[in-house]
Amino acid sequence: TVLNEQQLRVTFNESMDVGSIQAADFVISSGETVSSITLDDEFGTSVLINLATAFEKGVSLTLTVENLNDCAGNTVASNASTFFLGATPAANELVITEIMANPSPTQGLPEVEYLELYNTSSKILSTNGHSLSDASNTTTLPIADIQPGAYLLLVGSSNTDEFTGIDLAGVSSFPSLNTSGDSIAIANGTDLIFDV
Questions:
Q1: pTM above 0.90, yes or no
Q2: What are the CA-CA distances from residue 50 to residues 14, 17, 18, 55 (Å)?
Q3: Which residues contact 69 (CB under 8 A, 6 or more apart)?
Q4: CA gap 170, 189 in Å, rounded
Q5: pLDDT tens for residues 50-102?
C-alpha cells in the first residue's frame, strides 16, 4: 500500500522472522534507497518501508521483496508488486471528451447523465483534490487514477451500477447538465485543468 511518496506498507499473509527483515530486502525499480523499515506489529506481518527520497508520481514502479524468512525458517519466494501515486494533472492533461446531457432517448445506453474524461498525458493522473463545476454547482471528484491514454466515466454516485465493463467513478452531487448549454470545468483548487 502506498502511504505517500516516501512511505509504503507491505503486508504479509503470515508471520515473518522479524530478525531477518532488513532494508536491503526491499528494492524499488527506480533506484530509490530504502532508508529504514519499521515493523507495524510484533509478528512482522506488516512493515513500513521508508524511502530516503520521494519517488516520482505518475509512474508505475516495482517493489521487489526478497531474502525474507517466515517464522518457521522458510525462505519466502521473491515477490514483485507494482505501485504508483497518480500525478496532479497540468492544464489540458485531463480533458472532457464526451458529455451526455440528454440521455433520453437512450440509444442503447443507460438513461443517465455522464461525463467522459481522457488522460492526454504519458503519466498516471489522479483526480485527488479536484472539483467538477457547472454554471451553478461545484462538487469534489472522488479519488481515481487514470492511466495514460485511458478514459474515466463520471456519473452520479447512485448510477454507478448502470454501467459495466468500463472505468468509472461515482460523483456525489453530480451536477445536472443543462441540455440548452452549460459551462463545465475541472479544477484543482484555483488551477483550471480543463473547461468547456
A1: no
A2: 22, 19, 17, 11
A3: 16, 17, 20, 75, 76
A4: 20
A5: 999 999 999 999 999 998 999 999 998 899 999 999 999 999 999 999 988 87
